[in-house]
Amino acid sequence: MLNSLSGRFLILTTIFVMLAEVMIFVPSVARFREDYLTTRLERAQIASLALLADDMLTEELEAELLKNAGVFNVALRRDEVSELMLSSPMPAEITKSFDLRGARPMPLIRDAMMRLANPDPQVIRVIGNPSLDAGQQIEITMDTEDLRNSMIDYGLNILWLSAVISVFTAFLLFLSVRVLLVRPIKGVVGHMQAYSAAPEDARQIIEPSASVRELREAEEALHSLQTQLTSALKQKDRLAQLGGAVARVSHDLRNILTAAQLFTDRIEMSEDPTVKRMAPKLVNSITRAVSLCENTLAFGRAEEPAPALIHFDLASLASEVIEAERLAIGEYDLSISEDIPAGMMVRGDPEQLYRALGNLIRNARQAIVASSQPGEIGVQALSTDTDWIIHVTDTGPGLPPKAKEHLFQAFQGGVRKGGSGLGLAIVFELVRGHGGELTLDRSDETGTVFTIRLPMGKLM
After folding, report:
1. Nearest-5° Cα angle at 221, 215 to 226
2. Co-location of 38 and 122 in the same domain
3. Do 88 and 225 lie in a common domain?
4. Which of these ranges, 229-243, 426-440, 444-458, has the smallest mean pLDDT?
5. Taking 90 as the threshold, does the pLDDT of residue 346 lie above it?
6. Which stretches make up the Histidine kinase domain (predicted)?
7. Calpha distance 151→118 (Å, rounded)
8. Domain boundary among 248, 263, 298
9. Does 207 map to a domain?
10. pLDDT greater than 70 at residue 5
11. Which residue, of 168, 193, 227, is where some domain finishes?
12. Is the pTM of this model over 0.70?
């Protein structure tokens, strides 16, 4: 029970109520002491009035009056004259004097606490105003033993009452928390456990029903999360099945297209003008189909192999990629430049980074060619204290808004008409495998900038 929310709430409530009662206890005891002393003054005043009424009181009657008043001496000031009205032998010297006329709370609290802390009986003088304006001042001497015992009894009664109130209040709050908070939370936890056992089952999705606003907001948020997760799991399952089918089809289709490429080599040798005109287009179409199949198969693997990390010259690798792309440019008005410091050594997998740079440059080339405008592609690199940074820029038309929304998602981030969207998804996976990051820094009508950031530290 102590480890439960309601059990801890019960304990904390009891402690906090007791602390509040202690805050009340101190001034209450001080007030009790003041009332006690005031009562002694009133009793002494009554005894002195009896003496005024009859000057012939016997010593025995005077002693009885002092005993009933609980004091040793009574001095009353009337008509600007102070007179010792009643007196008896003093058991000890007066140690302290207390003036209750206009006493402030803090001195009263301090004196009360000091009296509780001091168990030794003392004789004190108390000064106050007479009741009903029966004089200017009344003064008594008294023993502190009865005062301290009465204060202790009063304090114990307050403490016991405070304890009873604390336990009763805490118990009521405990029941309230169990009903209003703990039980609904357990219901939410039960829904979560049932959902985790079968997340694909839409019947396990929680239906918000709590009356407490905060709990209902939590249930609504959980309902939304479970709904989205169930849909995502179903979509993932369908995509997994579709991916397996596409991979099998792509494998067989690639073999068929490879054979078709061999036949197109023969067709290109034909002397027929029509064949000569159509053959290059046929070759390009088949080449693009083979490339699509290879990319689909590459992305459809369970995962890319872990990069084989070595130090290599980035400038040499970039030159190889650029030379291969220049062959594909032909006579089109498009230039590719590089600005990489000579001898800049990068730690990574050369083959995977070759594919990553190749995909970025190829995408830029295809975007510029599709725009039918001259253009430029640039590859720049630099190093910081923690990273190697590679920028791939182009002066193409920029990415359409729809492509930016799902830029690095396979089959969704395609830019070109008929594109698969696999190129950037593959680059993203390859860079992430190096512990790095691929970002789109800018894309507008003036061009596009992609940045690859590779950490110099060890892979996490």
Report:
1. 125
2. yes
3. no
4. 229-243
5. yes
6. 248-458
7. 12
8. 298
9. no
10. no
11. 168
12. no
Q: Is the pLDDT of residue 347 over 90?
A: yes
Q: Tell me: do 164 and 276 sit in the same domain.
A: no
CATH number at residue 247: 1.10.287
Which amino acid type is present at position 445? E
The answer to which of 75-79, 106-110, 141-145 has the lowest mean pLDDT is: 75-79
pLDDT band at residue 418, thresholds of 50, 70 and 90?
A: very low
Contact criterion met (CB below 8 Å) for 260 and 284: no
**Which structural domain range is residue 378 located in?**
306-455
- Domain shared by 382 and 441, yes or no: yes
Q: Are 355 and 316 members of one domain?
A: yes
Do residue 381 and residue 322 come from a single domain? yes
